[in-house]
Amino acid sequence: MARRRLHGPALHSSVFLLFSLLPTSSAFLTPCRPALQSQHQLSHPAALSTPSPFCDRQHDGRLPLSLSATTMAHRAPGTANLDWANLGFEFRQTRSHIKFVWKNGEWSEGELVADPYVKVHIANTGLHYGQAIFEGLKAFAWQDGSIRIFRPQENAKRLRMSAERLLMTAFPEDKFVEAVRRVVADNADYVPPFGTGGSLYIRPLLFGSGPRIGLNPSDEYTLLIMPIPVGDYYKGGLSPVSALVIDDYDRAAPRGVGHVKVAGNYAADLLPNLLGKKKGYPIGLYLDAKTNSFVEEFSTSNFVAIDSSGAFVTPRSPTVLPSITNKSLMDLARDEGLAVQERAIPITEVKTLREVAACGTAVVVTPVNRVVYRDEVIKIGGEDGGTGPVTAKLYSRVRAIQQGEAEDKFSWTVKV
């Protein structure tokens, strides 16, 4: 008898019948993807991926509030099929993101979703009026097999501050931390294994999803939290880079939104950033918009330095985003016995600085050994241009805490 091959609806029906006959144990449940509802989903890689037999996702793509012990045992850090040594810093599809919607005066309970595409109203305020903010934080695998998130409470606070500035409904801070833990747990196998230097980058995005044609805040908001395994932001890790001073564009206006993590702030940097990279500079340094004479911050990270007196210095400005990594470095610098100063730094002072670095969640700490200002090339740290000793020390300390190789004396990490 010739074998009959199943195609299309017949195949889907047979698969459904197969799963309906299986026992609903924690070891073998429904596929790790949403029900196929359209031709678009049929052609999308997320819909075509092979489901894990150790998945307890519901048939519509959502995950129950609790995960079985069997499922979690098969989601140990680093068990996803990825080249952990060559991750780079780019988007990679993971199992799920978590989605919350604020509507009719309350936030939803949240759902874990596999489909990376979101259906939104064409008149949503996020796209039309820029009511969109985001965050960035990381989770790390420790040697004992646990997963720790670095300072999520601080990201929750900063997300709230950004929301308040754009008249958006803020997401509750305690609920934010639990949401991050929940999505990291569901994607535990995508956390780079201990010792590889990688991390699970977590990107929360909050935007106005309700329709508005007039300039008014939205009546609906959507929060998405997506996890992505990453390596170093700049190739070479702690290797120094050269920075180009951007004095023909402004990052943020005085009394504007430079102090909050608004999506539009980064869109404004795309052109200057591209122009700098074409000249061979991976990072740009902005000056203040009012006088064009004081250091503000790098394109995507804060400016930190060791001045001629040996003090740790960083700009104090209402247009600078308060970096959680910078805040951590200041605490560590004080712990090392260094004086810490948040003050105005004239661009003319840069030539006297002993060390300069960019810092942020994505870059962690990146040394800067050359600053090019107009026709002047300023060499930092002497002719050899290596990583400064204080920069190296602070980098090592923050990384050791993040990865569980040093005591977390500040209680910065949260266990998943």
List the helices and strands and how they pair.
Blueprint: H1 8-21, H2 39-43, H3 45-48, H4 69-73, E1 97-103, E2 106-107, E3 111-113, H5 125-129, E4 132-134, E5 137-141, E6 147-150, H6 152-165, H7 173-186, E7 199-208, E8 221-230, E9 241-246, H8 263-267, H9 270-278, E10 283-287, E11 295-298, E12 302-306, E13 312-315, H10 324-335, E14 340-343, E15 355-360, E16 364-373, E17 376-379, H11 389-402, E18 413-415
Describe this structure in a few short sentences:
The protein has about 425 residues and is an alpha+beta fold. It is built from 11 helices and 18 strands.
Question: What report would you give on this structure?
Answer:
By secondary structure, this protein is an alpha+beta fold. The protein has 3 domains: 9-73, no CATH class; 84-230, 2-Layer Sandwich (D-amino Acid Aminotransferase, Chain A, domain 1), CATH 3.30.470.10; 241-402, D-amino Acid Aminotransferase, subunit A, domain 2 (D-amino Acid Aminotransferase, Chain A, domain 2), CATH 3.20.10. It is built from 11 helices and 18 strands. The strands form 2 sheets. Strands 1, 2, 3, 4, 5, 6, 7, 8 and 18 form a 9-stranded antiparallel β-sheet that branches. Helix 6 packs across helix 7 (173-186) and helix 10 (324-335) packs across helix 11. It comes from Nannochloropsis gaditana. Belongs to the class-IV pyridoxal-phosphate-dependent aminotransferase family. Residues 1-27 form the signal peptide. GO terms for molecular function: branched-chain-amino-acid transaminase activity. The modification N6-(pyridoxal phosphate)lysine is found at residue 261.
